[in-house]
């Protein structure tokens, strides 16, 4: 499902989404209708990151806990989304973008690529 983007490293994806978050924050500061384009670009990159992370998680889970692990991961994703919405409501687009950049800065540390994948039969 993730296609060619599966070959992208976690660091490159984090930089792309963090850059999109910075652009989205700048659009909030400028306050011009063109800023909606940057919000759309950010959302597209964010969704790409979610698809890739979900695909990599599925590759690494083996056994009967697969459904539980993916459900807990989805809950974490939804909670992060609500945190961004709350930041937007409290501090506007600039604060939401700053939160995104801070969270994305942690992605390479949290999603190390040196974890072995599950063996396929």
From TrEMBL:
The entry's keywords: Membrane, Transmembrane, Transmembrane helix
Bilayer-spanning residue ranges: 35-55, 93-111
Protein name according to UniProt: Uncharacterized protein
Species: uncultured Thermoleophilia bacterium
